[in-house]
Amino acid sequence: MEATASSVRPLWHPQLRDPSGRRGAKPRRFGLTMVIDKGLGPHAFEDLLATAGDHVDIVKFAFGTSPLYPDELLRTKIALARRRGVTVMPGGTLLEAAVRQDMVPSFFRAALELGFDAVEVSDGTIELPRPMRTELISMARGLGFRVFTEFGKKKTGSRLDVEKLLRVAEQDREAGADIVIVEARESGTVGLFDEGGSLRESDLERIREAVGDHRRFLWEAPRKEQQVALLHAFGPQVNLGNDPGPGCAGAGSDAARPAVGHVRAAAVRAGVCDLSDLPQAAAKTRNPAPLGRGVTHPYTKTGTLNVLCHFSSISVFRGGLSPQYVRFFTQNPENPPLRKRI
Predict the structure, then answer these.
(1) CATH top-level class for 23-273?
(2) What are the residue boundaries of the structural domains of the chain, listed by start?
(3) 255-283 confidence digits (pLDDT tens)
């Protein structure tokens, strides 16, 4: 009985769970977090949703990876996500391949049968004429999908054309799109960011002046410093996505990287940092003991990433940062990345 009551009403005070007092509960219209899944197995995916389902709004199965899963496994993952109120969609690259091969009806049939509730209409690797883009959005909406469109090219060196972004976004919304995703790739090296992943600050200023309501867009920002920059620019209601997580000590294989990603998105959304930002001496004081299913603490030399362990390491929230904490994180010589950003 006590466990039931605990699950209904969180034991932590709201001001401890969200010191900023500005994060809404799911289902959220704004402040969305999109996680990119590049191949999590069913147990890792289930763990991700169990520990952070309340912080994840959208899961995108990256690129064209969806057909590479066994059908039943893909159905299982989609069903798990939807039960947690998470929107699920295949990567836009897969629909681009369907367009290129004249297999759009087959794509939509498979997406419906598998249980996807959203699709992404993009032209990152192909040229998509405006009438066809509008037709794809309309077709998807007619089938009951939530529609995300994407603006921008994946080609190295691609930059944002702000005027074109606004024009395409308006046309997409008129056709029925929910939100326009701004391309940055999973590497964060195109669009708003240069080839090294650094923010093009002059472009950001032009965007801030031009876009009006930034909540109409979801910004791909795979790197933590990119997320921080966008949060400072637009506030906690900014929509963020494509965070694969750069990993931490002992993070294991690439398949575990998205598990770090959702945590970083949630951490930066609520605050700014996690244990990987602290000096190594402080990090080593945490208990490195194994934590369930044979998965060990991320700071041990062996073992793969434990979502719960990493999630529990998020300890400082931007909404409640004291001047002492700000000085600690900005002045500590062992923490140059964060010192540059705050």
Answers:
(1) alpha beta
(2) 23-273
(3) 334 444 444 445 445 443 333 333 333 33
SS3 content of the chain, % helix, strand, coil (to 5): 45, 10, 40
Distance CA 280, CA 298 (A): 13
Q: Which pLDDT score, from 0 to 100, does residue 7 have?
A: 53
Backbone angles phi, psi at 292, to 5 degrees: 80, 140
Sequence-distant (6+) residues with CB within 8 A of 273 are 267, 314, 315, 316, 329, 338
Task: Identify the pLDDT of residue 189.
Answer: 75
Does pTM top 0.90 for this prediction?
A: no
Asked whether 50 and 77 are in contact (CB, 8 A), the reply is: no
- Alpha-carbon distance 38 to 32, whole Å? 19
**Would you give the end-to-end CA distance of the chain in angstroms?**
45
Q: Dump the DSSP string for 98-112.
A: HHHTT-HHHHHHHHH
User: Tokens for 220?
Assistant: 């791909």
Tell me the pLDDT tens digit for each residue of 97-136: 999 999 999 999 999 999 999 999 999 889 999 999 999 9
Residue 328: which region, alpha, beta or left (left: phi > 0; alpha: psi -120 to 50)? alpha
| Among candidate residues 237, 239, 125, 228, the one with its CA nearest the CA of residue 180 | 239
Q: Kindly report, residue by residue over 202-252, the tens digit of the pLDDT.
A: 888 888 888 888 889 999 888 888 888 899 888 888 999 986 533 332 233
Beta strands in 44-141 (DSSP E): 58-61, 87-90, 118-121
HSE of 170, CA atoms in CB hemisphere, 13 A: 8
Chain Cα centroid distance, residue 241: 3
- Interval 18-63: pLDDT, tens: 887 877 788 999 999 999 998 899 999 999 999 889 989 999 999 8
